[in-house]
Amino acid sequence: MTSSAPANVPTVDQVVDRLRAIQAGLPGGDGVGVFNQVYLTVTELVRDRLAAAYFDDPATVATLDGVFAARYLQAVDDAAAGARPSACWRPLFDLRGHPGIQPLQFALCGMNAHIEYDLPVAVLDTCRATGREPQDVEADYHRINDLLAQVEARVREELLPEPTALRVADPLLHVVGVWSMDRARDAAWASIVGLWELRQVPPAYRAVLAALDGSVGMVGRALLTPLDGQGRLP
Questions:
Q1: Which of 25, 122, 116 shows the shortest CA–CA distance to 70?
Q2: Mean pLDDT across the chain
Q3: Which region holds residue 48: left if phi is over 0, alpha if psi is between -120 and 50, else beta?
Q4: pTM above the 0.70 mark?
Q5: Hey, where are the domains in the chain?
Q6: Is the pLDDT of residue 5 over 90?
Q7: H-type helices in the chain, by residue range?
């Protein structure tokens, strides 16, 4: 079965170009910019792996990458137009300039929105567009998650500030401990399986999807709990 991308889905190279353009237009310290740089790194890794025969079905992975990216890019466009993005993205865009939030918090908040909500929706949309079922893409899904885990580990190492005393590190570690990549990707796959089974019951599907959007947004808000200039909870 061949893969055919939904209409208006960007290619991986187009996603990389757009993310670079977004990054170039954002001021230093912008919370969206922190996540955008992380996402650019992930997308460049996916692009490189696509060229290296890393995936079982590279055509479908390329489609998924574009569908996935389009959701974040839509949130960027909505915010630029003065519209509110979906609930999962609102904490990041609402608090992107808050001085009491550390860069690691912004990075994890964006990853939370994109993995726990956008990724399930993107997988479902890709399956519908390509005539596949979730189990057909599961192996490559986990390969993508392995790349995400590599980036998450690097982000935590690079963005977690060196503590000068325990009181500086502890509150930040407590806040970012709300979220982990392993739990997020397991939850995302559970959402994919559950929503796929509900696809023939549109009212239930829409209700569960709306609840997921809101609950992911709540976790994002918790991740962006402001800390004072010394890393303490206010």
A1: 122
A2: 90
A3: alpha
A4: yes
A5: 12-223
A6: no
A7: 12-24, 31-51, 58-80, 90-94, 103-113, 119-130, 134-159, 166-176, 181-197, 202-223
Dihedral pair phi/psi, residue 226, rounded to 5°: -65, 145
144-152, long-range: CB < 8 A, 24+ apart: 144/46, 144/61, 144/64, 145/181, 145/185, 147/42, 147/45, 147/46, 147/49, 148/42, 148/111, 148/115, 148/181, 148/185, 149/181, 149/182, 149/185, 150/45, 151/38, 151/41, 151/42, 151/45, 152/111, 152/181
Q: How far is CA 66 from CA 4, 47, 232, in A?
A: 12, 11, 39
List the single range of 18-22, 170-174, 216-220, 221-225 with lowest mean pLDDT.
170-174
Is the pLDDT reported for residue 1 higher than 70?
no
pLDDT tens digits for range 127-155:
999 999 999 999 999 998 888 888 888 88
Residues 6+ positions from 146 with CB-CB distance below 8 Å: none
- Residue 153 has what pLDDT? 86
Tokens linked to 144: 């993508």
Half-sphere exposure of 206 (CA within 13 A, CB side): 3
